[in-house]
Design goal:
With 312 residues, the protein is of the alpha+beta class. The protein has a domain at 145-265. The chain is built from six helices and nine strands; from the N terminus they run H-H-E-E-H-H-H-E-E-E-E-E-E-E-H. The chain has helices spanning 2-43, 66-79, 108-117, 131-140, 153-157, 255-265; strands at 82-83, 101-102, 164-168, 185-189, 195-203, 211-216, 224-229, 235-236, 242-249. It has a seven-stranded antiparallel β-sheet. The longest helix has 42 residues, at 2-43. It is globular. The protein starts with a helix and ends in a 47-residue tail after the last helix. Mean pLDDT is 73; it is low at 25-60 and 253-305.
């Protein structure tokens, strides 16, 4: 009887020890998962608070796919080393005090790509770095873009390009709009040349609360900016600007985006191409062209932040 009791007590002790170890392992896994998810939010540029113009609490961030995350990583690395003209004393103003200057920490691989793609072009030079150059540079280290032109050209160049998808925003009725994703090229219409940037984070809206889009850019008052994404998927942007939509390579699509592709194929989505005026030439497919400097650029501003210079 004594031996049986000893065996019973030993078995209970062993079971208790196993339970304690299991609880410790579970706690460790939960802590690790929490840290990992926090890292995804920070690394992807997902906004952690509500929009500057909205008091609503945004929902969880949309995580980027592997290739898109790489594009975001390059975009954020560039943005971290873009700044205003040193002579501007940190005060942005159009036309000479936007983030067109880069320092020694700017990704050298992107600079080398620009020198190969467009030798001697002012749009890639320090002090003149443009929004189109920024977008080309972000994709250059992951999947170089097959065509470019002035910023507004992008919406026409990629509309029917195989392997690429356009997701309409304010260029289409609410029923035809779609959500952006990190890594997308966001395109603005603004005479004469528009503006482009890289989406770095998305906080999707709900039926009753606004979300946000964060993006990285060049030739603007700040290299990182955020705008309100409304429940109808319209975007509050700078006065005089319209967010046409988002351009995405199909090989980095999420499941949600694939559903959008099927809708597009069925002819239910209509993304209208907006071309530049007749005095501009759209580049041939596969050729990266130099954005032109305009004599007159849009200098209109919104209250929360100044609008970028148009045209590059």
């Amino acid at each position: 009887m004594g031996n049986a009791m000893q065996k019973l007590l030993a078995g209970l002790a062993g079971a208790i020890l196993i339970a304690v170890l299991a609880l410790m392992l579970l706690s460790s896994l939960i802590a690790g998962a929490s840290a990992f998810l926090s890292g995804i939010g920070a690394g992807s540029g997902c906004p952690g608070s509500s929009s500057q113009t909205s008091t609503a609490t945004p929902t969880a961030c949309v995580p980027p796919s592997a290739n898109a995350a790489a594009v975001v990583h390059v975009a954020l690395a560039m943005a971290a080393h873009l700044h205003l003209n040193p002579a501007c004393s940190g005060v942005p103003s159009w036309p000479n005090c936007y983030d067109t200057w880069y320092d020694g920490g700017f990704p050298q691989a992107v600079i080398a790509y620009g020198q190969r793609a467009c030798p001697g072009c002012w749009a890639w030079q320090n002090g003149h770095f443009q929004c189109v150059s920024f977008v080309l540079g972000a994709y250059s280290q992951v999947e170089p873009l097959p065509a470019s032109g002035n910023a507004i050209d992008f919406w026409g160049l990629y509309r029917h390009r195989p392997g690429w998808l356009e997701i309409p925003a304010d260029s289409a009725p609410a029923s035809q709009r779609g959500l952006p994703e990190p890594g997308d090229i966001i395109v603005w219409q603004h005479p004469p040349d528009g503006h482009v940037a890289i989406v770095t984070g998305v906080s999707a809206p709900t039926a009753t609360a606004n979300g946000t889009i964060t993006f990285a850019q060049a030739n603007a008052p700040t290299a990182l900016d955020r705008m309100t994404l409304h429940p109808d998927l319209s975007v509050t942007t700078w006065p005089g600007y319209t967010v046409l939509g988002y351009i995405r390579p199909l090989n980095v699509l999420s499941n949600a985006s694939k559903r959008l592709v099927r809708i597009e194929s069925a002819g239910r989505t209509e993304a209208r191409a907006v071309l530049v005026d007749g005095d501009e030439e759209a580049p041939a497919d596969g050729v990266e062209s130099k954005p032109r400097r305009r004599g007159r650029r849009g200098g209109r501003r919104r209250s929360a932040a100044k609008a970028p210079a148009t045209g590059e």
